[in-house]
Specification:
The protein has 218 residues and is α+β, with helices and mostly antiparallel strands. It has eight helices and five strands. It is elongated.
Length: 218
């Protein structure tokens, strides 16, 4: 079967190049992992050289849950099942199917996209025998402890002064500090926008005040 032969060749190519190194590092849980982009780059090179094509035939949404971290942020967790078709570009066989499950979490709407990324990463790892450890997760879903209290206090103070002040504060942070604030970033932006709205209302003169009457020529 042409497809199976090509899969073996692709696996050999990936292994010959040293597999996929663990260059990603999860600072919160302190472990190294193989990044999805590195897996995709290695697999794509092998697919092109051997003449293999891979595409999703079907996607099934299994579950969507919402949890809350200790810092109060809401995280949406999406779980999907994807069936991939793997087929040689030459020959007349129908290829094979590979079924994978992926889970992705996000504070906004990127959970399903992250789940698709994880499903493909796992599928390619199984298909081409790329070793993944049990903790080799691209997007850990465990609750985090949130940002350091001192950093969070500074962020809240900046947000209380409006969106402009919060943006200046956020851009002045280091990359690590921004990542630490990621779980509460959206809620802080919303608080900053509410502070702007409150200031606008407070600065708008009421119709029956002397200042307002003077503006209206009374």
């Amino acid at each position: 079967m042409k497809t199976l032969q090509k899969i073996v060749e692709a696996s050999a190519l990936i292994a010959a190049e040293g597999g996929v190194s663990k260059v990603g590092y999860n600072r919160e849980q302190k472990y190294s992992y193989r990044r999805a982009e590195d897996v995709f780059a290695s697999v794509n090179k092998a697919l092109v050289k051997t003449g293999l094509a891979v595409w999703p035939e079907s996607v099934e949404f299994l579950s969507g849950d919402v949890t809350q971290t200790k810092s109060g942020s809401r995280i949406a967790i999406s779980t999907i099942r994807v069936t991939y078709r793997v087929r040689a570009t030459e020959g007349d066989d129908n290829g094979i199917t590979v079924i994978s499950v992926g889970c992705g979490s996000d504070t906004m709407d990127k959970g399903p996209a992250k789940a698709m990324t994880m499903a493909y990463k796992i599928a390619m790892g199984q298909l081409f025998s790329i070793p993944f450890e049990a903790t080799d997760a691209e997007e850990p879903v465990e609750e985090d402890d949130g940002p350091p209290e001192e950093l969070l206090a500074r962020a809240k103070e900046a947000a209380s002064k409006g969106l402009g002040q919060y943006q200046v504060f956020f851009l002045a942070l280091t990359k690590e500090e921004r990542l630490s604030l990621q779980s509460v970033h959206e809620s802080l932006k919303q608080a900053a926008q509410e502070a702007d709205a409150k200031q606008t209302v407070e600065q708008t003169p009421q119709a029956n005040t002397p200042r307002a009457k003077a503006r209206m020529g009374e």
